[in-house]
Amino acid sequence: MAPQSQPVEQAEDVKLQDYSLGQLLLYFLKLGAIGFGGPIALIGYMERDLVEDRRWISKEQYLRGLALAQLAPGPLAAQLAKYIGYLKGRMIGAALAGFAFVLPSFLMVLVLGWLYVHFGGLPWMQSAFYGIGATVIGIIIKSAHKLIKMTLKKSPLLWVIFLVMAGMTAYTQKEIVWLFLLGGFVALGFHIIPRIRPGTLSSFLPPLSLALFQVQAQMPSIPPGLTSIFLYFVKAGAFVFGSGLAIVPFLYGGVVQEHHWLTERQFLDAVAVAMITPGPVVITVGFIGFLISGFWGASAAALGTFAPTYLCVIVLAPYFEKHGKNPKLTAFVSGVTAAATGAIAGAVFVLGKRSIVDIPTIIIALLAFVIVFKTKFPEPLLILIAGLAGWSLQHFFHLGV
Fold first, then answer.
1. Cα–Cα dist 1/10, whole Å
2. What's the pLDDT score for residue 389?
3. CA 82 to chain centre
4. CA distances from 352 to 280, 356, 365 (A)
5. CB burial class (10 A; 0-12, 13-18, 19+) of residue 218?
6. pLDDT for the residue 381
7. In the predicted model, is pLDDT for residue 325 greater than 70?
8. How far is it, in rounded angstroms, from Cα 165 to Cα 341?
9. How many DSSP H helices and E strands does the chain contain?
């Protein structure tokens, strides 16, 4: 059906523009092809493009999708893309939106994987990441800033949840799903029992957070092979919560330390591939799968990683949409999104420590910060320039090596 030119009335009493599923899929293809900066930047692009500019979805729908993406396992940006696809085309829409979002970067890592195997490594990737990593921090800070303005507003309770989650993420260097749930239940509790004061939260959350952090998933040893690769990455997709960046240490423990499918250098190169290509960072699983078992290994790894996320969306999305205006669900979602925003802020600190390591990267990060906040300079071009700068600094001046 051709899109209508007149705005139509949608949920939450917001006038939204009508659009077709085909238009949405083209958008996600484009975002997957040019969307740099990792999961935090990608969800920021979706909010800017689909909520503010095109008005295809409402702010409330976006925040519910963000809450679901944080609660469900798997990479954050891909989960949100599937949820938005579900809003338009239900199960088929979720599947196609996820496929369109991942396809461009998957094809890119296949090409890079072939070049890597053919030439015995691509040292320039680590050099490029020297500049790209610092630049990405500026892009992430901008996305985090927009989310803070959208989700926290003037609520003392949500600010406390945000600060606790930011601190825990920075301290543990992980995104802990139990804390997202805890943030939602705390906000729900304050909604049900108004006499509880936000001041009590600061003494309640940290001890419980540290206790919940001790819960760790145990992975059995799996021999190589397509079925084994698929099953391993199903578990990786099912047990890793938060952003796609969270899967990196999880995969390192399994792929390098436990199964010895890759060397440590190969794994670091796989992470660099994920950061220098657009789309979801979790697409590094495609590169890893290719190094293990070629094209079919890459396909098995990607399919396994994204299968749990799809199932979660089609199971949870109907409930989120049906009961979206329920005050209790609204309170719960507000707590989850505050916790998610805190995790994103904490992730900025964690990623900053790893990416900003000397004076040149400090300068690159500051320049990127000023550019993304003060201008409308295209992020893909900024990433390209940063990659060239990183390569030049390492190649000619041997910085960062």
1. 18
2. 87
3. 13
4. 19, 5, 9
5. exposed
6. 81
7. no
8. 8
9. 15, 2
d(CA 223, CA 227): 9
pLDDT digits (tens, 9 = 90+) for 80-123: 999 999 999 999 999 999 999 999 999 999 999 998 888 877 77
- The string of DSSP letters for 209-245 reads HHHHHT---------SSHHHHHHHHHHHHHH-BSSGG
Can you give the pTM of this predicted structure?
Answer: 0.66
Residue 324 has pLDDT above 70, yes or no: no
Tell me the pLDDT tens digit for each residue of 193-223. 654 454 544 444 444 444 444 433 444 444 4
* Calpha distance 65→59 (Å, rounded): 10
Q: Is residue 5 part of a domain?
A: no
DSSP 302-365: HHHHHHHHHHHHHHHHHHHHHTTT-HHHHHHHHHHHHHHHHHHHHHHHHHHHHH--SHHHHHHH
Distance, in Å, from the CA atom of 35 to the CA atom of 48, rounded to the nearest integer, reads 13
Q: Which residue has the tokens 């949820």?
A: 83
- The per-residue pLDDT for 11 is 44
Does the residue 265 lie in any domain? no
pLDDT at 104: 93
Mean pLDDT computed over every residue of the chain:
78
CA 152 to chain centre: 20
Domain membership of residue 346 as a residue range: 16-217+306-395
Largest distance between two CA atoms of the chain: 66
Work out the angle at residue 320's Cα, subtended by the Cα atoms of residues 42 and 10, and round it to the nearest 5 degrees. 80
> What domain count does the chain have?
1
